[in-house]
Amino acid sequence: MKTYIYIITICLLLIQNQSLASTRIINGSIAKPTDWPWAVSIAISDFSTLQGAFCAGSLIHPSWVVTAAHCAKNNINNLQVILGRHTLSNENTGETIKIKKIIKHPEYDNNPGNPLADIALIQLEKPSSQPILRVAETYNKLDNNNSLATVIGWGLTDVKDKSSISNKLQQTSLPIISNEICNAPESYDGDVADSMLCAGLAEGGTDACVGDSGAPLMVNTAIGWQQVGIVSWGESCAKPNFYGVYTKISSFHSFITQNICTAEEIPAIPMLSVKIKQENVTVHWDNIAEADGYQFYYAPYSEPMTEVTFNNINSFPLKDNNINVTLDNNVNFYVAVRAYKGNCYSNYSNLGTILWEN
Ligand code: ARG
């Protein structure tokens, strides 16, 4: 009799565990209601928000949401964007805003398997009051391999159950995987383009899934969370070797900023100067009153300058309008800066050169 009870409890525990495992993004957890205030749900307005929700996105400007192009349906009249809501069925929370216009990336190729340039910008009919998410700047290289990232969404929590759309926002953390590993023969065998990135575990188990499309993949940085990816595609969900594939936001940074920022929102261009005293270098630039901060760029000095390419330009954000560095022997740099406000950037400052003098 005792053994029976044991077996029954063990079975119950196993069943419980199973259902626990299938109540999240795919094996994630319920987000804290205040953690992701820029998360948005995109829904068909004829239904309740829980039934109508089909994709997600992120607020990157008071009037603009970024999502996947494959989420951008043509008839915008029966679509709505839901902001500031954690539990979809709580219709009295957050904001519901209609759509003014959708800009799909011109290179989006509508390929259902592995869409290229799977990014679209949604302009809201009126600005939202939710906080915005910063998107990764091209040269910041926040999408490095092995960085830990977080994906959120209201999508399927069980790939076999089409009704498993989550009422509450879910999240899971995943490492970013190199395109080389993701394109291996046992994985996507070359289908992952340079403008895509992969995140997940080789053994599978946790992933975004259907319905999470358009949602942000984010990394935490010194200046807060920044978006590095957009949920785009994958072979099933959470399968070993088949990582989640995301649109690489940094590849589309200028597409985003060129479309969402009005002339008045673009900060003034700072003028930069370099002072060198032996190995002590101070780079200083104008304080721009309207800016939230500055993006600082540096690249190894080369003559001619054409050798400065994507791979050797780096950038990082700074709050102050100067930086002090100590130079190593014979190391020479180009430097420049841009002022930013939200996701809107000024043009580049003049180019400074830091040349080692002996
Ligand atoms: N295309 C899916 C959607 O429309 C998202 C797929 C993401 N899949 C994955 N395994 N990460 O919702």
List the main descriptive attributes of the protein structure presented here:
2 domains; 358 residues; single chain; Thrombin, subunit H; binds arginine; Immunoglobulin-like; 10% helix; six-stranded antiparallel β-barrel; 4 helices; mainly beta
Question: Describe it for me?
Answer:
There is one protein chain. This protein has 358 residues and is mostly beta strands. The protein folds into 2 domains: 232 residues, Trypsin-like serine proteases (Thrombin, subunit H), CATH 2.40.10.10; 90 residues, Sandwich (Immunoglobulin-like), CATH 2.60.40. Helices cover 10% and strands 35% of the residues. The chain has 4 helices and 22 strands. The strands form 4 sheets. Strands 9-10-11-14-13-12 form a 6-stranded antiparallel β-barrel. The chain has a 6-stranded antiparallel barrel with strand order 2-3-4-7-6-5. The protein is globular and about 65 Å long. The N terminus is likely disordered.
